[in-house]
Amino acid sequence: MAEYEKTVSAFICALLVCTLLFTNIVCIGVVQADSVDKLPAPTLVSVTYDDRSYDVPASTTTDPFTGKSVENPAYHVNNRTLTFVIDRKNAFRDNPSCYQHYLIRMKGAFSNEWNTITELFDPDPISPLTTKILSLPSPENMPYDSYYFPSVGQAEFQVQAQEWVQVPPGPGPLESWVKTLCAESSWSNTKTVSFGQDLTDGTQSQPNHIPSQTSTNQIEPQPELIIQLPLTEFILVIVLCTTLPVLIIALIYTRKTARQKKSA
C-alpha cells in the first residue's frame, strides 16, 4: 500500500506541474500575440480634391418609334475624387513573409472623431510613392453606411502603415492559418482639404489641398488576439501530453499489482 500511495502522490504532483506549465505557456503566447511592433510613420505628401461634376440641362427629343416628343428633365452628374500621394520612406521592413498595407482615415476639421475611409491597400511595389484615388459619392445620394464627404467644408486626412503575417491558430492542423497584425506605424502627418467654399475667408476656392500639421488625439486599432506558441514550447506541450497517459497507465498497473498481492 505504501508503494501505491507514493504512486498516487507522484501522479497528482505531475498533473499539477503540467497544468501550471501549460497555463504559463498559453499566457506567454497571448502576450506575444498581443504585442505589435512599431514601424516608422509614412509621409502623406498630398491630398487633392477634384470636382468635375456637371449639370445636364433639360431637353426635348423625339421618340424614334412613335414620333412623339419626349421631355428629358435636367439632372446632375457627380464626378468627385480624392487623390492621395504617400511616401513610405522605409516605413516597411524588408521581410518577404509580411503583407504590407496602408490605411487612410479622415475627420471633419472641426471634429475630433476619426473614421477609416479605405480598406487595407498595398503600396506601390516599385516606387516609394503610392497614389490612391477615391471616387466620392454625391452628398445628396449617400448610402446609409457610407462616410460623409461634404460638398462644402474642410476635412483632415492621415495614413498609417501596417504589416500582417499568416500564423497558425495554435497547436493542431496547419490548414487554417490566420492573417494577423504584426507591426504598425503611428498615424502620419495631417493634410487638410477644402471642399467647395474655403471657410477661412468666405471665398470660393479651387479644388486644391491646404497643408496642415495639426496633431490630434489618435485612436489606435486593436490587434487581433491569437495564441501563438514558439516551437520549443510547442514541443514541451507535446511531451507533457505524452507523459500524462504514461503516468495514468503506471498508476493503473501499480494499483492492479497491489490488489493481486493483497488477495494473495
Write a brief structural summary.
The protein has 264 residues and is α+β, with helices and mostly antiparallel strands. The protein has helices at 2-34, 231-263, and strands at 37-39, 43-51, 54-56, 59-62, 69-72, 75-77, 80-87, 99-108, 115-116, 129-136, 153-167, 178-185, 191-195, 209-211. It contains 2 helices and 14 strands; from the N terminus they run H-E-E-E-E-E-E-E-E-E-E-E-E-E-E-H.
Extract low-pLDDT stretches: 22-33, 198-234
Percent strand: 25-35%
The helix content is 25-40%
Q: What string gives the helices and strands in order?
A: HEEEEEEEEEEEEEEH
Give the biggest sheet.
7 strands, mixed
The helix/strand class is alpha+beta
How many strands appear in the DSSP assignment? 14
The average pLDDT is 73
Shape: elongated
Describe the structure.
Strand 8 and strand 9 form a beta hairpin. The chain contains two helices and 14 strands. The two termini are 14 Å apart. Helix 1 runs antiparallel to helix 2. The chain is elongated and about 115 Å long. By secondary structure, it is an alpha+beta fold. Strands 1, 8, 9, 11, 12, 13 and 14 form a seven-stranded mixed beta sheet that branches.
Fold blueprint:
Layout: H1 2-34, E1 37-39, E2 43-51, E3 54-56, E4 59-62, E5 69-72, E6 75-77, E7 80-87, E8 99-108, E9 115-116, E10 129-136, E11 153-167, E12 178-185, E13 191-195, E14 209-211, H2 231-263
Parallel strand pairs: 1-12
Antiparallel strand pairs: 2-7, 3-6, 4-5, 7-10, 8-9, 8-11, 11-12, 11-13, 13-14
Helix pairs in contact: 1-2
